[in-house]
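Kindly inspect the following:
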Amino acid sequence: MKLLGGNLLDWDGPDRTAFMRDIGRDAQQITDHELSTLLDSEWRSRLTAAWLIGLNRRTQFRDRIGALLLESQLVYAGRGYCLALARFETAADADLLCAYLDRYLPRTDLEYDQHWAIGALFTSTSASAATTPTGFSRPVVSGKSPPPAGTTQPSGTTT
């Protein structure tokens, strides 16, 4: 499953060229009905559909992709949803990614696709300043984000 790790972009040579050509062609040729069918299936089909949707920037699937990401019902599929939202590159997509992070980032017991969502936020070039992911750029320790720089700690020290 070449899409699973997303590392296909690290490939060099003719294998990468052939794969990128083929998936680009597939993204253009697949119908919306076929994509919907894939989104109703298991995680591999959903991951593939999300990549094809993102590559062809089929923004008509934004709401469905966002809802599936928030539901996080199936392992690995969220990686594709994050890629699709990053490829759409609008503030609405950044809002969906932030909503996902608001729900799942504090859940340290759930290791889902939080790192993919953060990566999607930071790589989306059209996210508005209102949705810039600054709230997600500080490390979380024991479920609590550290206080912003320049604030006074209970011990009297300043960060």
